Amino acid sequence: MTDELAADPARPVPPSPRPRRAVLLSVFAGFSLFAYVLDQLTKLWVTSSMVEGERIPVFPPLLHWYFIRNSGAAFSIGENVTWVFSIIMAAVSVAILFQVRKLGSVWWSLALGLLLGGALGNLTDRLFREPSFGMGHVVDFIQLPNFAIFNIADSAVVSAVAIICILTLRGIALDGSRLTHEHKDKSGDA
């Protein structure tokens, strides 16, 4: 019966099913909200139950909670230009929202959701924490050996970037289509 349908030109074979728009937007919104809320709740817990500079062993020597406030980026880079990070995070958040209309893949929805949630988590700190609006210091508290101290928002961003790298290496575009070698060659010729 299926062969008859495929052979009948009046009834073309439907394309492979793509995830529905509502599912993609739900995944995007769900992971954005999850990353943002978890980040803000853990920072609230840290600021209300720990003193800045306090270090609590969780799984020594592998994991400690170590409460610091970071005015810079990763590894405290750019401590004197905190306002620049606020602008960058706001721009990244807006750029992500513009890309949402192109989503055609659940994995891209997950990645962009985590990226937006993480960016907004740290942007919230930059905007509303001391010392001033737009120059706030980010609350960091997760310490691993020989590594920077980070938070849930940072973890969400790094996870998102890892997923995006895997999707890109596998040739999966934002719209869910697969880039073939032929498609790559044609786009490289232009």
Sequence of secondary-structure elements: HHEEHHEHH
Q: Mean of the pLDDT scores? A: 87
> What's the gyration radius in Å?
21 Å
Structural class: mainly alpha
What does this structure look like?
It is a multi-pass membrane protein. Pathway: Protein modification; lipoprotein biosynthesis (signal peptide cleavage). The active site is at 140, 154. Its main location: membrane. The chain has 190 residues and is mainly alpha-helical. It is 54% helix and 10% strand. The protein is built from six helices and three strands; from the N terminus they run H-H-E-E-H-H-E-H-H. The protein has helices at 2-7, 21-49, 82-99, 106-128, 152-169, 181-189; strands at residues 55-59, 63-70, 138-143. It has a three-stranded antiparallel beta sheet with strand order 1-2-3. A hairpin with a 3-residue loop joins strand 1 (55-59) and strand 2 (63-70). The model has no long low-confidence stretch (mean pLDDT 87).
Topology:
Blueprint: H1 2-7, H2 21-49, E1 55-59, E2 63-70, H3 82-99, H4 106-128, E3 138-143, H5 152-169, H6 181-189
Antiparallel strand pairs: 1-2, 2-3
Active site: 140, 154
Enzyme class: hydrolase
Family: Belongs to the peptidase A8 family.
Name the descriptors.
single chain; mainly alpha; elongated; 190 residues; 3 strands; aspartic-type endopeptidase activity; EC 3.4.23.36; protease
